[in-house]
UniProtKB/TrEMBL annotation:
Keyword NAD included in the entry's annotation: yes
Gene source species: Wickerhamomyces ciferrii (strain ATCC 14091 / BCRC 22168 / CBS 111 / JCM 3599 / NBRC 0793 / NRRL Y-1031 F-60-10)
CDD domains in the record: DUS_like_FMN (cd02801)
Stated name of the protein: tRNA-dihydrouridine(16/17) synthase [NAD(P)(+)]
EC number: 1.3.1.88
Catalytic activity of the protein: a 5,6-dihydrouridine in mRNA + NAD(+) = a uridine in mRNA + NADH + H(+); 5,6-dihydrouridine(17) in tRNA + NADP(+) = uridine(17) in tRNA + NADPH + H(+); 5,6-dihydrouridine(16) in tRNA + NAD(+) = uridine(16) in tRNA + NADH + H(+); a 5,6-dihydrouridine in mRNA + NADP(+) = a uridine in mRNA + NADPH + H(+)
Residues covered by region (Disordered): 376-412
InterPro entries in UniProt: Aldolase_TIM (IPR013785), DUS-like_FMN-bd (IPR035587), tRNA_hU_synthase_CS (IPR018517)
């Protein structure tokens, strides 16, 4: 079998535009199946630890089942590994040959565990090792290798880094437009300008994916048009609302009701083999129901007490309770008026916020000291605009003074 490369590989898997990002313990099989129903056209697995995947049968059994990568249920699929040893990475990748379309190297994880283990975004300091890891798979693995990176503060340095990753053999390049330091409470907005700079300055035939700032379905189209990328990847946006990938302008698909969403997801998990989907279920419920739980705290308590891996009866009770509550809301005489979504003005970052009923899936804005990250960045952008305007005014004043002085000069 010929190993497909670059644009040829992208075409072979259907030129996907909407991609489920690799997320630790969150882009597992059941979630991928659900996301594909809501418009995802390519999925990445959670980040797997290459050394453990290569050496521990128990780890592989926990992370990987007979349905993962199944042609009829879970393709196209990219399997992602974190690694710092080329040999272990190759051993791990060989276990998934035939069950995926490519293997991805994680160069973007910014968490403390990645720093401790010397992988993910902390390999940004070790370019030689990054090149060896990618090139090992490029030259010795039977399927293609891809890579997902974060950016440096300097766009020129980021460009050189991206060129090195491609030169090593990466067939797709995904760029997460955030610094390594932008994580948790410091997440903020991704920088689309630096992503576009990379797109414009890398070879035109590079298969290029953008990641960051996807809150609503229309943000995907805006990203595709603004950056000129081949596809858009979503992590948190997808986790809180899988409908973010839906192209059709339909409220029930783009912002599904949480009662219908938890029921659909629950039924998928019940049928999935292995442990990964069951273990992830509780976390997914908290995210899907995030706007719902502060109002219906009894449901929060049910989720907190549940143990999906050991007792599905607990989960069934949660689903039934959510369905009952939303049914009561939907039977209100003014429900049609209550169940509307309104869109605000375009913000400095290019998108617009929406007011969405709490019984529908919606994006999450991480707060710090009571202020969400998006608002902090917006305020920062306003200050930048004000500073730029002040500088422009000072320049204009100086130019006017020079011009006036020239006029006042005597002529011979």
């Amino acid at each position: 079998m010929t190993k497909l490369q670059g644009r040829e590989l992208f075409n072979a898997i259907g030129q996907p535009k909407r991609i489920v990002a690799p997320m630790v313990d969150q882009s597992e099989l059941a979630w991928r199946i659900l996301s594909r129903r809501y418009g995802a056209t390519l999925c990445y697995t959670p980040m797997f630890h290459a050394k453990l995947f290569a050496t521990s049968e128990k780890y592989r059994r926990d992370m990987w089942s007979e349905w993962d990568g199944d042609e009829s249920k879970d393709r196209p699929l990219v399997v992602q590994f974190c690694a710092n040893d080329p040999d272990y990475l190759l051993q791990a990748a060989k276990h998934v040959v035939g069950k995926c379309d490519a293997v991805d190297l994680n160069l973007g994880c910014p968490q403390g565990i990645a720093k401790k283990g010397n992988y993910g975004a902390f390999l940004m300091d070790h370019w030689d090792l990054v090149h060896k890891l990618i090139n090992k798979l490029h030259t010795e693995l039977d399927i293609p290798v891809t890579a997902k990176i974060r950016v440096f503060e300097e766009k020129e340095k980021t460009l050189e880094y991206a060129k090195m990753v491609l030169d090593a053999g990466a067939q797709f390049l995904t760029v997460h437009g955030r610094l390594r330091e932008q994580k948790g409470q410091k997440t903020g907005l991704a920088d689309w300008e630096i992503i576009k700079y990379l797109r414009d300055n890398l070879p035109k035939d590079t298969v290029f994916f953008a990641n960051g700032n996807i809150l609503y379905p229309e943000d995907i189209t805006r990203c595709l048009n603004q950056i000129g990328c081949d596809a858009v990847m979503s992590a948190e946006g997808n986790l809180y609302n899988p409908g973010v990938f839906v192209e059709e302008d339909n409220i029930d698909k783009q912002f599904p009701r949480v009662d219908k969403l938890v029921r659909e997801y629950y039924e998928i998990v019940k049928n999935c083999p292995g442990n990964a989907s069951k273990i992830a279920m509780k976390s997914h419920f908290f995210k899907i129901l995030r706007p719902f739980l502060p109002i219906h705290t009894d449901v929060r308590e049910l989720i907190a007490k549940s143990s999906p891996k050991h007792n599905f009866d607990d989960v069934e009770e949660i689903v039934i309770q959510v369905e009952k509550i939303v049914k009561e809301i939907s039977e209100k005489p003014d429900f049609a008026e209550l169940d509307k979504i309104t869109t605000g003005p375009v913000e400095l970052w290019g998108g617009a916020y929406k007011q969405i009923p709490y019984w529908r899936a919606q994006p999450y804005f991480r707060p710090v000291n009571g202020v969400t990250g998006d608002k902090r960045i917006t305020e920062s952008l306003k200050k930048q605009d004000e500073t730029t305007e002040e500088i422009d005014q000072q320049k204009r004043k100086a130019e006017d003074e020079l011009e006036n002085n020239d006029v006042k000069k005597p002529t011979n």
